[in-house]
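Before the break, one more example. Copy the sequence into your notebook; we will annotate it together after we see the structure.
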Amino acid sequence: MSKKALLKPQWLRVKAPQQELVGDVSNLLANLKLNTVCQEASCPNIGECFASGTATFLIMGPGCTRACPYCDIDFDKTTRHLDPSEPERLSEAVAQMKLRHVVITSVTRDDLSDGGASQFVACIEAIGQRSPTTTIELLIPDFSGNADALAKVMDAAPHVLNHNIETVPRLYPRARPQGIYKRSLELLQQVKQGWPKAYSKSGLMVGLGETDAEVIEVLEDLRGHQVDIVTIGQYLSPTPKHLPVDRFVTPEQFEHFRSIGETELGFLQVVSTPLTRSSYHAGEVQQLMAAHPR
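Here is what the structure looks like once it is written out:
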């Protein structure tokens, strides 16, 4: 018998967005034929972010070559050519939206020899030419452990490099079957060792069946691999076909994770609330960069 779905608690209710402002961003993205992870992954903060004129751009998609059972992005394992016009269209959106900080992520493209690293580089270069003062944050896949692909991306000098650890190692076979916990940690450490001026970042979901102690162990692992910034948010099952929510973590426990991460472990920042997602309020990193310059 399948587990009965848990009722969503009060603290996970989201305010209705300002439809006019949301529509402005949606129309711009549609006109430029751009995808966002906000839309493709059914992010609960889409109303707030679109209303404030921000978005997390999803390149090389929307189809992903991995089918993680927690994720709402479509699965597509076919080989697809990269769109050479995508970086220029992305830079146009950044300019029109007057973004001071932009987050670029991608689907996982195991069908490409470099995992799509070259497209990330092209996007960084296009934005740099049109909006040279905009800071750039990348949220990358693991590139299947390809160190040359990582170097290609990092040599393009993104300001923040994010790679999500997603969950605790015990749950990888169930939640992230094609991912490798150790490989993700090593990627994050390679960033700090090879490009120390970059700010490294990672994130994880809670509510998939992990314990609080396991979450803290992941935080210890991330800090041990020199990660600067961590995000922690509540997992929400996109549809009944996806992994179910095992528990709803209370706001007080999220605050406890934040306190341990910042006070005891020494992260520069831990953003930990039920509705936190990888790029939620990502622009605030500019304040952190000003306070901890490199």
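The longest strand covers residues 199-206. The longest helix spans residues 117-130. Try to locate both features in your own notes.
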